[in-house]
Amino acid sequence: MPERFQPDLLRAHLRPLAEAAAEAPQLAAYRAFYGLEFAGVHGRMGVFPAAGFQIVAQAWWPAQPRGTLLLQHGYYDHVGLYRHLIAWALAQGFAVLACDLPGHGLSSGERASIGDFADYQAVLHCLFGEAAALGLPTPWHLCGQSTGGAILIDYLLRGTVRAEIGETLLLAPLVRPRAWAWSKLSYRLLQPFVSSIPRRFSENSNDPAFLAFLQRDPLQPLVLPTAWVGALARWVPAIEAAPPSARRPLIVQGDADMTVDWRHNLGVLGAKFAGTETLMLPGARHHLANESAALRQRYLDFFSARLA
């Protein structure tokens, strides 16, 4: 029987990511639990400080990488849930660097919370620093699911884009969530009285095995903090008022997505960027990183053709 994955034990033994340290106890059990075992690939897990948090990150290198994919996960997620995208990137010849956002996965911070979306930008900039320290090959392509996409949109619109950056891949990117007016009203009513409400797991994928796995994932947050909703409420008008960018991101969006207001969001992104290329996936739900195999293959082929 494989060793049981114990998050606290793994976290306690992690060293700085840029150090070539011996593997931490429990890392093999973590990889086995999340299916992050990739043959012929060198992998590393470690930590780095950012915005007052201890951020846990992972990197993988194929034998002769031709570039790098920097991956940003979605809300409630962590890197352990992204094996399909990581395996695809490695098969394409890219190194991969990804981190658990503050309050997510193995990183520190109040679970699923953030005081300000600016903290996410600070983490992203530190992730770039780790990519440079590790000598990861350029171009550095960016890929974000949902809130991870929002972080990348913010960077492209309001940051100074580094020369190393290549393409940007956005999966069901967040600008506004679905029923945003009601969510804001609920936040204003609840915020003075409660700090969080219980999380409701949604059927955000057509892959039943993924939905079942979430129920036994020890790194899943079980609350929705009002602080995160407040931070989002401040971020949305700021990003919708941001000046346009000359960048041209690649976007994948499912038309059965019940998490984000995708029609509004695609309109915003179309107006903010000099050009967008969007692949609409009929029947696809929100968690595109863990959609059914057939739907994943369609957008991975779309990405492969454009990163060739």
Automatic annotation (TrEMBL):
<protein>
    <submittedName>
        <fullName>Alpha/beta hydrolase</fullName>
    </submittedName>
</protein>
<dbReference type="Pfam" id="PF12146">
    <property type="entry name" value="Hydrolase_4"/>
</dbReference>
<feature type="domain" description="Serine aminopeptidase S33">
    <location>
        <begin position="64"/>
        <end position="292"/>
    </location>
</feature>
<dbReference type="GO" id="GO:0016787">
    <property type="term" value="F:hydrolase activity"/>
</dbReference>
<keyword id="KW-0378">Hydrolase</keyword>
<dbReference type="InterPro" id="IPR000073">
    <property type="entry name" value="AB_hydrolase_1"/>
</dbReference>
<dbReference type="InterPro" id="IPR029058">
    <property type="entry name" value="AB_hydrolase_fold"/>
</dbReference>
<dbReference type="InterPro" id="IPR051044">
    <property type="entry name" value="MAG_DAG_Lipase"/>
</dbReference>
<dbReference type="InterPro" id="IPR022742">
    <property type="entry name" value="Hydrolase_4"/>
</dbReference>
